[in-house]
Write a structure and sequence with these properties.
alpha/beta
Amino acid sequence: MGIKKSVSVLGLGRMGSALACALVKKGYDVTVWNRSADKQTPAGARRAGDLDEAFEADVVVTCLATYEVQRPLLSKNIKALVNLTSGTPEEARVTAEWARDNGVEYVDGVIMAVPQQIGTPGARIFFAGNEEHHVLDAFGEPVYVGQDAGLAALYDLGLLGVMWATFAGYLQAVALTGTEGVTPQQLTPMVADWLRELAEMLPEMGEETQHRDYETEVSALDINVSGLRMLAEASRRQGVDSALPQALHDLYQRAQQKGHGTHSIASVIEVIR
């Protein structure tokens, strides 16, 4: 890479500290800044006396709680900004516009990893905007998703939505089966096998949503609406909260009522859209 760039990291939460440590390991000249003094300075990095000192670096990496926290900290004295603060696509686009107006190079990224994975190939960083990703390779595997600065956040929220829904479904199953003494240790291997089978169905489902062809000979929406009704009812009878299966039942039923009863589950996207 030649001469190592100087990098400042704003934000020393768990993720920000992990980012700073990864940069130090890669040989960068690392300066860190945090609003409060209670966060420890990562080994090999130095503490900036103020933001102006932090902005002297070739690249500024921000990893803050929210865009609201970040916004008043930004300065036109920044040369290149790699924003790893989580937010919405619109917030990323507004920040990109600010960067353009102030002559600041801008990369918007999202970290698809936990702090312990930073610096390993298992950490994927989706990034958008400027295709020159500067220092992202120090954190893991950079994945460019396009010029629109909002795309990284869009991917992030879409994938997190899958995670949150999957975790909620798993916890619903643990709670439901647990009412009859089934332990998570007994259930979880079955769930893992089931998820692998479901993952193999996703490419075909994606094709269906793209072409809007929902004809099926496998599992019609009518059957699944009935199944969700039974899951919600069983949850209530077993003393388990039924909000999740009831919400799914209502969503699927809306698609059924729009004429998709004999179609595949993929047809539910017509209601979501």
